[in-house]
Amino acid sequence: MKILHVASFDGNIGDNASHIGFHSLLSRVMDEGTYSIEQLEIRKFYNNYTLPDKHRFDDDFATLANSYDLLFIGGGGFLDFDIKGSPTGTTIGISPSILDKIKVPVVISSIGCNPRNEIPEGNINKFKDFLDSYLGHSNRYLAVRNDGSREVIREVIGEHYYNAIPEVLDHGFFYDNDGSFYRPTEKDYILINTTSDQVQMKNRLLGEVDQDSYVDEMGKVISHIIDNTPYDIVFAPHIYSDYKAIDILLKNVNDFHLRTRIVVAPYVQGDYGCNQIFSAYKNSALVLGMRFHANVCTIAMNTPGIGLGALDRVSGLYRSLGMDGQFVTVDQPFSNELITGMGKYIKTPGINTTKLAEMKADMIDYYHKILNA
Description:
This is Polysaccharide pyruvyl transferase domain-containing protein. This protein is an alpha/beta fold.
């Protein structure tokens, strides 16, 4: 089987971990040597992509898809229906007329549907039209990831679509490090993943996050770690702009502590960088993670962690696994709650392993069904 895989391969190391997990999942449901995968970068379809190799969801794309045995789109947050000017309201801007020209089976899976910006007028109807066209064919499959997306569909798009679209795990739950070993400091450490972009995004459930308040609350947590624990602090960027977020948090840290207690991991990309940085996650005593895959991979590797919920999808992730008490939301004062949680979970994973194992088994069964139909 020749598979055309459309997703973000050059986005950040969380995306890479997701795709490594996808390959691991495929190896469990398809015999080795019976399939091949060609990757197509979805960022080349973005409206703001201006390089000469730009792609479009047009007749040429339909022709390309039909030259394969299967079109697979995901994982990623590509069904957030807040994209201005998209014929579907989403990043997957395949109009119903183009969709009708794609004759091979199509799978859109491990996908997020959790808008983070104002929804342009008309987008909900565009999205419904896309879903009606897509779900009306027996050789098309759509499943959202376990980040609260299915609840968004029920509450915003409608019960009918909620019933028609199942939830699966994010592919990152099948991520396993390739054996890379990276330990940023010789002492035990707490790893923090913080962002600047996600703090500024909008949410459906969480309130507005005030960046100054977030920095103040995280400053209290950093001071607690330095003053009251033996642990070093390692910051792990996933994209280049994460350095800005790290810099903001460190401006009020004593210079001597910066030199003796703080480490910043390198900015590295691709599968190699993914395995290096997530090795640092795996070797930590505790992860405080803001990005979605910072949390997914922490759980997947059975590493202790607490989610920093700047976006609804982080809280949705933990709730889907029955781990409601293992994240804080940063739209309100959270330092005391986080410090208490650190004392509880340091070096002690609070993962609901039974529920996770059941969800992984269900996903393997689902993929075996749709990929061997």
